[in-house]
């Protein structure tokens, strides 16, 4: 039976990394944050900090001595640089590697635009799987969480404009999609590492809840006590806009592709997917508190 106690986190000061560190600490893991030598990031009490040269396998290997698992929360632009971390983890005898996946399931994503933007993640996990096959004691877990719900409301309102009380609705607005609050993602990572034998070499889907644009609109109107104006958005127009941006090297196209992928009629992001919430003992959450916090400006 595999036991994981000591966990190293890469990118632990980022948007996803912070709640992962918090979730691991709350679950009783010993957490070490790996940072760049020039980093001035700070971490909660109880977190050890080790500065490394991310270009040097030897530097990372030394920092990973005694670690049972590595969780990478590297930003999308940095995921292509995970290879030395993977090599160091194998050399240091790390048992489990959770790469910087989260968000969209890169194993099944059908949108060509998203696949292009997410090539770094796709290739990194391919590399990790190859390493695991060659080194059976080195295992991996991929995690997809759906849309970052609280973060999305905080940064963009997920299309909901509080000032004008309006929202863009893609196609019918009835397509279901998965969404997760950031603290939930931290709980999910901790649960995966607490159940290492059940989660080895698997790509797991978890979510705080399953929603649709119209379901969110109903809650927003109930919580705000007002009728909101809807603005129709056609999914082909989103894809076209994304293609035009991407052709110019503008990776803000990700948002256009993501909306089309999640919200378009006939969207397939939830089809045939069985959530691992039950396997991991994760309780489904209610989207209402997050929506309320958004409307009150508390996110």
Automatic annotation (TrEMBL):
Q: Name one Pfam family in it.
A: NmrA
Give the keywords, sorted.
NADP, Oxidoreductase
Query: Domain NmrA-like spans what residues?
Result: 5-236
Q: What is this protein called?
A: NmrA-like domain-containing protein
Q: Does the keyword NADP apply?
A: yes
Q: Gene3D superfamilies, per this entry?
A: NAD(P)-binding Rossmann-like Domain, UDP-galactose 4-epimerase, domain 1
User: What GO molecular function annotations does the UniProt record carry, in alphabetical order?
Assistant: oxidoreductase activity
On the tree of life, the source organism's domain of life is: Eukaryota
Q: Does the keyword Kinase apply?
A: no
Alphabetical list of InterPro entries matching this protein = NAD(P)-bd_dom_sf (IPR036291), NmrA-like (IPR008030), NmrA/Isoflavone_reductase-like (IPR051609), PCBER-like (IPR045312)
């Amino acid at each position: 039976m595999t036991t994981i106690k000591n966990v190293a986190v890469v990118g632990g000061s980022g948007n996803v990394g912070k709640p992962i560190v918090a979730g691991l600490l709350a679950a009783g893991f010993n957490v070490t944050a790996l940072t760049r030598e020039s980093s001035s990031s700070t971490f909660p009490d109880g977190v050890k900090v080790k500065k490394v040269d991310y270009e040097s396998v030897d530097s990372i290997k030394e920092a990973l001595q005694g670690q049972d698992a590595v969780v990478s929360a590297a930003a999308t632009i940095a995921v292509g640089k995970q290879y030395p971390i993977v090599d160091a983890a194998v050399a240091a005898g790390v048992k489990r590697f959770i790469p910087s996946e989260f968000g969209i399931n890169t194993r099944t994503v059908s949108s060509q635009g998203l696949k292009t933007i997410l090539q770094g993640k796709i290739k990194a996990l391919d590399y990790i799987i190859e390493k695991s096959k060659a080194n059976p004691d080195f295992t991996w877990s991929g995690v997809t969480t759906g849309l970052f719900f609280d973060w999305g409301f905080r940064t963009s309102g997920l299309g909901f404009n509080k000032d004008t009380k309006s929202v863009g609705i893609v196609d019918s607005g009835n397509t279901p999609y998965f969404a997760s609050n950031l603290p939930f993602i931290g709980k999910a990572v901790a649960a995966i590492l607490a159940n290492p034998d059940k989660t080895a070499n698997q790509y797991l889907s978890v979510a705080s809840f399953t929603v649709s644009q119209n379901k969110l609109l109903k809650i927003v109107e109930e919580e705000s006590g007002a009728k909101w104006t809807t603005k129709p958005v056609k999914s082909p127009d989103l894809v076209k806009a994304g293609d035009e941006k991407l052709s110019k090297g503008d990776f803000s196209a990700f948002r256009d592709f993501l909306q089309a992928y999640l919200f378009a009629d006939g969207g397939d992001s939830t089809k045939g997917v069985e959530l691992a919430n039950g396997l991991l003992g994760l309780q489904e959450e209610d989207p209402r508190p997050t929506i309320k916090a958004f409307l009150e400006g508390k996110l």
